[in-house]
Design brief:
62 residues; mainly alpha; 45% helix
Amino acid sequence: MARKKQDELSSETRQKNIDDQVAAFLKAGGEIQEIPKGKSGIAKGNNTRIGIVLGSPSAQKK
């Protein structure tokens, strides 16, 4: 159902939603790390993934 609701939104509305989510993430102290083109998302040797964490920072600490 969530997918259908998303499809009903205009591309401008979807982009505004993404922009709002990014702004909220940054305001809450989140940080965006740019991974250079061609670099793997997995750190060498320890299989640690480099990526994003969705949700509030306080929810991740539990």
